[in-house]
Specification:
Length: 147
Amino acid sequence: MEALERQRKALELCLAGANYVQIAQAIGYKSTSGAYMAVQAALKLTLQPMADQVRQKNVERLNRLRMANWPKAVSGDGKAIEVELHLQEREARYLGLDRQPTDDAAKQTALAAAQINVLIQVDGQNVSIGEWRRKLLETGNGRSDTD
């Protein structure tokens, strides 16, 4: 079985609810880390529709756990609150909500911000905010970064 086929099979087993020990045994990986890496590779690089199904199934499972745990959590049970926070963290990871922007995304944001030329009215004239700030610094009416 070639790598892509093994990844596909690992993802199918994961979707069906198998754990990494079961996946490793079924496909013939020497350890659970091989099964884990196969599922992760499939989730990241291949088989996007099936990967989306796995994410959705896992979020549904978390929601079922949340529904069972929620009454205790809202009544103040400390352990139930910890469980709820853990479920929220897992859900955020599945959905990619905690991802940091890539360097490219940060550069694009900075570039877009630099390209915005916001104008304000100063003494009846349109002036860019950057120019207005420079004039304030030159005249001593504005603070510099070293103040």
